[in-house]
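Progress note, sequence design subtask.
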């Protein structure tokens, strides 16, 4: 079930009413309702893989008790079982065909014919997210940071909570489980914040991301015949398409969770207002980057063993992060590019320059120096997005090559309005909105308008979402969320 679908806007109020008006006196009843609703939500999209989700949940639930053992050998044994189980699921469904074809190519280079058996099976929706939920739970128990959960329903809600099930954010057991286990009371203010976040997420997805998608798809499919200017605009459009798409999903997820009394982890903190790559990764897909930091970078030694080890571990997490997104070399290239951009900051000890501060926090506009840093960081990120969006490294190289060649042969093109200039009609309002909200990503601040005008403005935004949704459906441009494929 999609957040931007008619079915979801029937499903959500039904679950909400049952949750607060029928099951409100029983915490266990609320949790069972949430679990049933979550499985229904998942099964509506992909009922064939319900068994895989339930099996993965059950195994990590059981492994948790083994990992909690005071016998270190027994605890480590069950930890490895969990790793093998979760990485095995990912390996079979997400990476098997990729590695099989790479081995076929490698053997072919040395003259050996190898015809591997390939799996003709779809990638289960949300598999990269719910397996990471399970692994973090078991890891935290092994480290002594979490006790195993006795109630299976509570643990299953942690794994399968429908707002975050298919595209995150990737929650931590110590953050979400206590909320699952305590009595939840309806909070009007929290619910209003949730509705605002849902609306803002729909604006990002339906009005902005989906409106940019047609131009992006056409440009990347036919880049060989377009001008440099149009291709540059297309790359910029994709930067905002994927941001609007994914952060829009996260906003809807956070807002929906608020309606049921839950507070999820932040997943985005206005990443395009970053002043360097390190800050970008503290603001983009935060739950994934922090997951790799805590469960891969630090266990590998982090930066404790000197600069060379820090460089090695940095490249490992960026390459693994790229590979997490998909079994294709273009994602690995994307991760490698970001590692190269992060490297100078690491070597110069400037990777923690902007940890908690917000650009122009006490000013209306950034300084010239800050603006330059924002532009250069965004340019680097947009360049890397070309590899992420292209279907192969070769296509990405061809796209970039076409930009260079066309610019050399026809420099006068930059004096004319190119195809695709319309994208700024969507990008500029998004930038203005994000700049206004940049000090507080958790909720939309109250508009400085009288209540009737505020209400009229929200109704107008809802009508805009509905109109754009219908328009995209008629034009066959309506899309699933990009991160569903990961």
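Output:
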């Amino acid at each position: 079930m999609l957040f931007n679908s008619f079915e979801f806007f029937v499903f959500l109020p039904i679950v909400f009413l049952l949750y607060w008006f029928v099951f409100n006196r029983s915490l266990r009843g609320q949790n069972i309702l949430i679990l049933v609703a979550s499985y229904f939500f998942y099964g509506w999209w992909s009922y064939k893989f319900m068994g895989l989700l339930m099996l993965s949940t059950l195994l990590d639930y059981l492994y948790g008790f083994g990992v909690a053992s005071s016998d270190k050998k027994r605890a480590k044994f069950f930890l490895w079982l969990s790793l093998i189980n979760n990485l095995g699921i990912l390996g079979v469904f997400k990476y098997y065909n990729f590695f099989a074809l790479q081995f076929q190519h490698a053997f072919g280079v040395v003259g050996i014919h190898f015809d591997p058996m390939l799996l003709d099976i779809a990638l289960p929706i949300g598999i990269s997210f719910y397996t990471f939920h399970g692994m973090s739970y078991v890891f935290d128990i092994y480290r002594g940071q979490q006790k195993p959960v006795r109630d299976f329903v509570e643990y299953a809600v942690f794994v399968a909570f429908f707002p975050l099930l298919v595209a995150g954010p990737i929650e931590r057991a110590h953050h979400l489980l206590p909320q699952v286990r305590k009595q939840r009371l309806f909070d009007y203010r929290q619910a209003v914040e949730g509705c605002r976040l849902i609306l803002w997420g729909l604006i990002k997805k339906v009005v902005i991301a989906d409106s940019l998608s047609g131009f992006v798809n056409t440009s990347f499919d036919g880049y060989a015949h377009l001008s440099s200017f149009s291709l540059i605009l297309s790359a910029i459009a994709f930067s905002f398409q994927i941001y609007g798409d994914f952060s829009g999903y996260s906003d809807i997820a956070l807002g929906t969770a608020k309606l049921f009394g839950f507070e999820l982890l932040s997943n985005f903190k206005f990443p395009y207002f970053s002043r360097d790559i390190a800050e970008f990764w503290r603001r983009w897909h935060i739950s994934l980057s922090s997951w790799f930091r805590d469960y891969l970078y630090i266990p590998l030694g982090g930066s404790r063993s000197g600069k060379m080890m820090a460089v090695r571990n940095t490249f490992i997490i960026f390459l693994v992060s790229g590979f997490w997104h998909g079994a294709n070399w273009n994602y690995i290239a994307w991760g490698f590019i970001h590692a190269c951009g992060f490297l100078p900051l690491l070597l110069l000890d400037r990777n923690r320059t902007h940890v908690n501060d917000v650009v122009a926090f006490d000013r209306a506009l950034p300084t010239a120096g800050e603006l330059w840093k924002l532009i250069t960081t965004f340019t680097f990120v947009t360049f890397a997005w070309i590899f992420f969006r292209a279907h192969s490294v070769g296509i990405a190289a061809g796209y970039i090559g076409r930009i260079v060649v066309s610019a050399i042969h026809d420099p006068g093109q930059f004096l004319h309005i190119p195809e695709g200039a319309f994208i700024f009609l969507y990008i500029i309002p998004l930038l203005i909105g994000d700049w206004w909200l940049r000090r507080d990503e958790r909720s939309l601040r109250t508009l400085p308008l009288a209540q009737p005008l505020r209400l009229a403005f929200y109704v107008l935004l809802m009508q805009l979402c509905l109109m754009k949704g219908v328009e995209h459906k008629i034009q066959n441009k309506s899309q699933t969320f990009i991160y569903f494929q990961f």
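The two ends are 16 Å apart (CA to CA). Work on this subtask will continue into the next period as scheduled.
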